[in-house]
Design a protein that fits this description.
Strand order of the largest sheet: 1-2
Number of strands: 2
Distance between the termini: 26 Å
Shape: flat
Number of helices: 0
Length: 48
C-alpha cells in the first residue's frame, strides 16, 4: 500500500474494532505510518 503522497506504508490498520464484554472500545479505527513517522496511541487516562 502507499499513502496519499506515494510513500510506502510500513504499518497500516483499516477498520479495526474491539469489544470488551458488552462494551465497544474501538469502532472502525484506521491509520497508517510511513517511513520516518512516529505515532503513539494514548488512552483517555494517559495510558498508551
Amino acid at each position: 500500500m502507499t499513502g496519499g503522497n506515494g510513500e510506502p506504508e510500513v504499518l497500516a490498520l483499516r477498520d479495526v474494532g474491539l469489544w470488551l464484554g458488552e462494551r465497544r472500545i474501538l469502532d472502525s479505527v484506521s491509520f497508517s505510518i510511513r517511513p520516518g513517522e512516529f505515532a503513539g496511541l494514548i488512552g483517555a487516562n494517559g495510558a498508551g
